């Protein structure tokens, strides 16, 4: 399948999606989002894919929603077309997905990265929600997800002033899991994704589902949900294999069952 705004590759068990609109710093227009969703649907359906990396260029992961496409929208266009809701597909992707962010991750770019399971950042990464400077506010989950990642004070300051965070501050604040040299970022993200893809796929999917549940529920309900999935794992062949391999002092051969 050929795409105009993204590059899609398979690296062994890892799917790699690279946002590729260099002339617009990977600004997210409706065509690009449609392509990302199509690529993700392909990876979701592909039994050989165990995880995905989503990245951009060294200068920009994505500089936000496409302002030129968005500027003439009316309220009725936005409401009837349910503007931006289709972006949420990324947060509903069921296999593990890592954002590898170098350069600008602004507005919808920051929001897209936060929809992934975790963010690895290049040393030059800059995160921000500058929508306030355009006369709007974040519309792809930024006011909610950024607040959960970095807490109210920083999220409020960023959303109300448009101030950007650099990679070090983003790591200190819990927005990104690690900061890496820019030229090693994608390779390291692929290595991490490969490690995840080598585990049992249903187990990594359930693990992701359980961690994500922490954002949607109370502690008691979340722990109950975790317990149910944990118990269910004992019905999988991979639990038997993983534990037998430990006892027999050999590497496990997960069968994704
Ligand atoms: N939409 C459309 N085009 C964009 C864009 C965007 N979000 N960001 C950058 N571009 C385009 C520029 O218009 C420019 O195109 P031309 O050469 O045709 O003029 C090209 O990309 C390069 O950009 P700059 O010349 O501005 O590059 P720079 O290095 O001087 O500045 C920048 C980089 C600071 C990121 C600057 O481009 C910028 O501020 N971009 C807009 C960031 C922004 O406001 N993002 C939020 C968008 S709103 C949103 O995302 C809503 C939501 O919640 C979903």
Automatic annotation (TrEMBL):
GO biological process, any: fatty acid beta-oxidation
Lyase among keywords: yes
E.C. no: 4.2.1.17
Any Pfam family the entry gives: ECH_1
Superkingdom of the source species: Bacteria
InterPro entries: ClpP/crotonase-like_dom_sf, Enoyl-CoA_hyd/isom_CS, Enoyl-CoA_hydra/iso, Enoyl-CoA_hydra_C
Keywords from the UniProt entry: Fatty acid metabolism, Lipid metabolism, Lyase
Reaction it catalyzes: a 4-saturated-(3S)-3-hydroxyacyl-CoA = a (3E)-enoyl-CoA + H2O; a (3S)-3-hydroxyacyl-CoA = a (2E)-enoyl-CoA + H2O
Keyword Lipid metabolism part of the UniProt annotation: yes
One of the record's GO molecular function terms: enoyl-CoA hydratase activity
Family assignment from sequence similarity: Belongs to the enoyl-CoA hydratase/isomerase family.
Role played: Could possibly oxidize fatty acids using specific components.
Database matches in PANTHER family: ENOYL-COA HYDRATASE, MITOCHONDRIAL, ENOYL-COA HYDRATASE-RELATED
Full protein name: enoyl-CoA hydratase
Taxonomic path: Bacteria, Pseudomonadati, Pseudomonadota, Alphaproteobacteria, Hyphomicrobiales
